[in-house]
Design goal:
The protein contains 22 helices and six strands. It has 615 residues and is mainly alpha-helical. A two-stranded antiparallel sheet has the order 1-2. It has a two-stranded antiparallel ribbon with strand order 3-4. Strands 5-6 form a two-stranded antiparallel sheet. The protein starts with 18 loop residues before the first helix and ends in a 52-residue tail after the last helix. The N terminus and C terminus are likely disordered.
């Protein structure tokens, strides 16, 4: 058994869904679509399962059809065939196609007499139902014989001549195990010479030849898929695997599979249904070694089990090199102890004070949308968390990690979480008290950005944030002892935060950048418009008053200038400018000489009208 926690590499087998599961779920159109869901596979020298086969040239048409659905068709057909209305045929199938589907479902039934252990049994069942309802005639009428999903089914001969040269040639060049190349390790040169298109009309002869070889013992029967999937052992295995601890390490992921295979007797069931050689159904199961409970309790076993828990921590996406060499690789020192019961590891507590699920390590909480069910995850007080999905069928064999019922198989890997109620309460208080303000500011900026506020959070938003912080701190003040952690304080804090987040968002939309309500803003705009009108009237009146005042002042000045005219001097009016001089023209002093009198005529207030001589 080569098990990998993740199958995402080129060496991984594509997702395989058993034909019975596909038919039962209604995820099919025609049976040829799902007959060969993966290419041939084999094993390399290192035991790794790898893709192998003859390619499209040697593969059967059913493999080519599956390849066409994956976008690797080797035949250049039009996607829907010329004139084929494939969608209408799926939506409104004719009675012949409906009869074909019921016929194939009956052959898959538990009580069916169809022998699924014969190589090519699925092809034989399809041919029987195809011929029973004469689908060739129906598909020809719908012009879909050349469709990628059906070619070359229309060339089937329902009553072939198995003694013809064509039948003998095809039986020789197309061995029976070529039908099972998608499930068994088949030599890559075994089917290269087979011309499937040419041999398709006599395909019934090839399936009959395989039945004869099974009866005379010259060919071993292949896996009886129907009996395998309907066995109670498989149902018990699925229940065991769902309940086994798987979250703590890669060791537990592998050990949960191997332990349940041994406990539910899947090895014996695989042998009885002839599925050991089938890669998809056997996949190395028959070669597993199952240890007893006594062997698993010995000191070497316990040392490996608990040591590999530490070496193969599940927080890493893939096992480390040390983990692979010491614990998981085939032939490693501890690999044989994977059949022992995987230990349940207690690593953290949930937010409500309860312990997580033992199988997944997940804490469940009620859905916030009101729908039934719970949401699985790590506690909110953990520093880091990874949630994986372990089911989905991407494993070899396919059923080892298959979830037949609703839901998924989750694995919660939680790190740096509180391990006790008291530790959780202390961490909750320290975290909230130390970061409530910073968290609030970042939330305000985020909401303002999302709501398109240019100037950032408005005043109302900040007031609401202060209210939020006070209520959150009040919740912490009420938690005074270890028992109060069971009240789920983190849930109360989350509820307060959600309420105020919505209220702050509403405030951002209602108040905008100005910090006023939209209705108040409209009222203020109307008041501003009225104020602008009053201001314009006052400004106009003031302007007119200023202009009028300037006009009046100008008129007064012009009138005064007109009332006081300036006249010229007469001959008998003298005015002396400068120092006074004597009329004798004598020298008055040094540097001063006598001068002639200057006369001026100027009116004097209170003086007579007669001119005076000024000296």
């Amino acid at each position: 058994l080569k098990f990998r926690p993740k199958c995402l590499t080129a060496k991984a087998l594509p997702l395989w869904v058993p034909l019975r599961e596909v038919m039962a779920s209604g995820m099919w159109f025609w049976a040829p679509l799902v007959l060969s869901c993966c290419p041939a596979i084999g094993a390399n020298d290192g035991g790794e399962l790898v893709l192998r086969g003859a390619g499209n040239n040697g593969a059967s048409p059913l493999q080519r059809i599956a390849a066409a659905l994956r976008g690797h068709s080797g035949r250049g057909l039009a996607p829907a065939g010329a004139g084929c209305k494939a969608v209408a045929l799926r939506l409104m199938p004719p009675p012949a196609l409906q009869g074909y589907q019921r016929c194939f479902e009956d052959k898959l039934d538990v009580n069916s007499s169809h022998d699924w252990s014969v190589p090519g049994a699925e092809m034989d069942a399809q041919i029987d139902c195809w011929c029973k309802h004469n689908l060739t005639h129906t598909i020809e009428e719908y012009q879909c014989c050349e469709h990628d999903d059906l070619y070359p089914m229309c060339s089937i001969d329902c009553t072939p001549d198995c003694d013809s040269a064509l039948a003998h040639t095809c039986i020789q060049k197309c061995p029976s195990m070529c039908f099972e190349a998608a499930e068994y390790v088949v030599d890559e040169g075994l089917c290269k010479q087979c011309d499937w298109t040419k041999c398709w009309p006599v395909m019934k002869c090839l399936t009959n030849h395989a039945k004869l070889r099974i009866e005379n013992g010259t060919l071993d029967p292949t896996c009886h898929e129907s009996n395998f999937t309907n066995g109670h052992e498989l149902t018990n295995y699925w229940q065991c695997w769902r309940d086994a601890p798987k979250h703590s390490s890669h060791w537990n992921v592998l050990s949960s599979v191997v332990h349940c295979i041994c406990r539910e007797k899947m090895i014996q069931h695989t042998i009885e249904t002839s599925c050991c050689d089938s890669v998809l159904y056997g996949g190395g199961v028959c070669d597993l070694e199952c240890l007893t409970e006594a062997q698993c309790n010995l000191q070497p076993a316990q040392t490996c089990i608990h040591g590999c828990q530490w070496k193969c921590g599940a927080f890493d996406l893939a096992p480390t090199e040390d983990c692979m060499k010491s614990c998981l690789e085939k032939g490693s020192e501890c690999r044989k102890y994977t059949s022992c019961r995987p230990p349940a590891v207690k690593s953290h507590i949930c937010d409500d004070g309860r312990w997580p699920e033992a199988s997944s390590g997940c804490c469940g909480r009620n859905r916030s949308d009101g729908l039934p069910g719970v949401i699985l995850g790590c506690p909110k007080l953990c520093e880091s968390q990874h949630i994986w999905r372990l089911d989905g069928g991407r494993a070899i064999p396919w059923w080892t990690r298959w979830q037949p019922g609703p839901g998924i198989i989750a694995q919660c890997t939680c790190r740096d979480c509180p391990s006790s109620p008291l530790e959780g309460l202390v961490k909750l208080k320290d975290t909230v008290a130390g970061s409530v303000w910073d968290n609030g500011q970042m939330m305000l900026v985020d909401i303002a950005r999302r709501e398109g506020l240019v100037h950032g959070p408005n005043r109302r938003m900040q007031e609401l944030m202060v209210m939020r912080n006070n209520e959150i701190l009040a919740v912490l003040d009420d938690s005074e002892n270890e028992d109060t952690v069971s009240k789920d304080n983190s849930k109360a804090i989350a509820l307060i935060n959600d309420i105020y987040a919505q209220r702050i968002t509403d405030a951002a939309r209602a108040y905008g950048d100005d910090g006023i309500l939209a209705s108040d803003g409209k009222r203020r705009e109307e008041e501003l418009e009225k104020n602008y009108f009053v201001f314009a009237v006052i400004a106009g009146i003031c302007t007119c008053a200023i202009i009028a005042a300037i006009g009046v002042a100008t008129k007064v000045v012009m009138r005064k200038k007109h009332e006081t005219p300036i006249t010229s001097f007469d001959q008998n009016q003298q005015v002396v400018i400068g120092n006074p001089v004597s009329p004798t023209n004598d020298v008055v002093g040094s540097g001063v000489t006598t001068g002639a009198p200057v006369t001026v005529s100027a009116p004097m207030k209170g003086a007579s009208e007669s001119p005076k001589e000024l000296s």
